[in-house]
Amino acid sequence: MRAECREASTLLHPDPAHVLSFDREGRLYTFYDDGVLYKRALDSSLHWRRRENDGPRERGVLAEKEARAVYEKVQSFVNRGVEELEPECARRLAAEVLPWTPERIMAEKQRFDAVYRPIAILPPDQYFSIVVQATEGCTWNKCTFCSFYQGRPFHAKNADELRRHALAVREFLGRQLLLRKGVFLGDGNALALSRSRLLPIFEAVREVFPNRAIYSFVDLYSGERHDPADWNELRRLGLRRVYVGMETGLDELLAFLNKPGSAAELTEFVRELKAAAVSVGLIVMVGVGGREYAARHAAATIDALAQMPLDERDLVYLSPFIEHPASQYARDRLEAGLTPMSGEEVEAELQRLALQIRALGTRAARYDIREFIY
Ligand code: SF4
Predict the structure, then answer these.
(1) Would the pLDDT of 223 be above 80?
(2) Which residue among 149, 154, 217, 323 is best mutated to probe the pocket of ligand 1, counting the most ligand atoms within 8 A of its Cβ?
(3) Each residue of 344-372: pLDDT tens digit?
(4) What tens digit of pLDDT does each residue of 159-181 get?
(5) pLDDT > 90? residue 251
(6) Structural domain boundaries of the chain?
C-alpha cells in the first residue's frame, strides 16, 4: 500500500489494479478498480467507464445500491490504508477520509441539491471549474435537438441571490476548491443578461472567488445584444472564454434545428469577442442532419471557421450528435427523410473535421456529452 499526500488531494495505491483519489475534504474523487474507472460527481452519483481490449468505450452511472457497494469497497481500502501506511499519511487518511462512511458520502446528494439546481452540461475543459448558476435554464429553449433545460423556466438570480448561492457553493466545495480552477457561470446562456445585471454578478463572483478566470456559455442571439464595450468590460472583470453552440456552419441546417442565427452572424460575433481578447469555444455537432446533410454541413462549417480569427487559445469542440428519440428533431428528421449516420461514420467524419480545423491554426477536440460530470 502506497499513498501520496499532495497539497490538493490524497492518492491511495493499494496495489497495481487499484488507485483511489480524494479531495482535501476527504471525499472520493476517482477510483480505478481493476479496469473500471469510477468518478464521483458532487451529488455522489458514480459515473463509470471502461474499455475492454480494443472494444468501444462503455460508460454509465451506477444505481444507488451499486454505488453503495462501491463506496463500501472504497472504505475497506481506506481502513487498510490507515493501518498499513506510514504515520503521516495514515494520520491524514484517518482525519480526512475515514469519516466519509458510505452513508455520509451518499448524503452529499442532499447537500448538492440544496446548493444547485440540476447542472445539465458543461464544456469538457470546464468539468474542473466551480459552477456558479447565475441563471437557470435557457432563454430560448426551442432548438429541436436540445433537451438540456426542458421544463425549466428561465430564471436569473439577482446580485444578492447570486452572492448567497456563490457562498453556499464555496462552503459545499470546501477544500475541493484546491482542485478546481476557474468559475463557470451557468446555465445555458448566463451572458444573455443585460450589462446592468451582469456587472454586479461578476463583482459578486470575484468577491467570493477572487483571482479566478470566468467562463460561460453564450448563444449568438443573446451575445449580439452586448456591444464591444461590454465585452471589454467583462474581460476586465475576468471573463476569459465563452462557449457558443455553433452546431453547423450551414444556415439551412441551423434553421432545420430551429436555432436562431447564421454563419455570417456568428463570424461577426467571434470577431467582436476576439477584439475584446475573449477566447471562444465553438461547439459543432457531428452527424446532425444525417447522411443527406453530411458533406454540406462539413464544408460550410470549415468555410465559416476559416473566416473567423481563431488562434491557439480558441477551441472547436466536435460533438458526436446524440438523437433523443422523443425530441422534435427525431420527428422532423423522419418527416424530412434524413438517414442517421452510424457511429463509425460519425467518428470518421469527426477525425476528418479535426484535421481540417487544426490546419486552420486552432485546436479541435472531441466533446462527448455522455461523459459530462460535475
Ligand atoms: S440555445 Fe442552447 S441551451 Fe438553449 S435550446 Fe438551443 S441548444 Fe439548448
Answers:
(1) no
(2) 149
(3) 999 999 999 999 999 999 999 999 999 99
(4) 899 999 999 999 999 999 999 99
(5) yes
(6) 2-107, 116-371
Check whether 219 has a pLDDT greater than 90. Answer: no
Which of 197-206, 215-224, 235-244, 318-327 comes out lowest in average pLDDT? 215-224
**How many helices, marked H, and strands, marked E, lie in the chain?**
13, 16
Please say whether the beta carbons of 20 and 9 come within 8 A. Answer: no
pLDDT at 239: 97
Element (H, E) at 185: strand 183-186
Pocket lining for ligand 1, CB < 6 angstroms: 138, 140-143, 146, 148-149, 188, 219, 245, 259
Q: Which atom of ligand 1 is nearest to the CA of 187?
A: 3
- Portion of the chain with pLDDT greater than 90, in percent: 89
Instruction: Give the distance (Å) from ligand 1 centre to CA of residue 70.
Output: 35
Atom 8 (ligand 1) nearest CA: 146
CA 324 / ligand 1 centre spacing (Å): 14
Question: Of all atoms in ligand 1, which is nearest to the CA of residue 141?
Answer: 5
Average pLDDT score over the chain: 95
Looking at domain 116-371, does it have CATH number 3.20.20.70? yes
Q: Give the distance (Å) from ligand 1 centre to CA of residue 55.
A: 33
Tell which atom from ligand 1 comes closest to the C-alpha of 139.
Answer: 4
**How would you class 136 by CB atoms within 10 Å of its CB: exposed for 0-12, middle for 13-18, buried for 19 or more?**
buried
Q: Whose CA is nearest to atom 6 of ligand 1?
A: 143
Residues 6+ apart with CB under 8 A from 195: 226, 230, 233
**Index of the ligand 1 atom closest to the CA of residue 145:** 7
| Residue 14 amino acid letter | P
Q: Which helix (H) or strand (E) holds 239?
A: strand 239-247
Atom of ligand 1 nearest to the CA of 120: 3
- Grid coordinates representing 320 are 458526436
Find the 373 Cα to ligand 1 centroid distance in Å. 19
Question: Can you tell me the distance from the alpha carbon of 220 to that of 20, in angstroms, rounded to the nearest whole number?
Answer: 42
Q: Provide the pairing of β-strand 135-136 with 130-133.
A: unpaired
52 pLDDT higher than 90: no
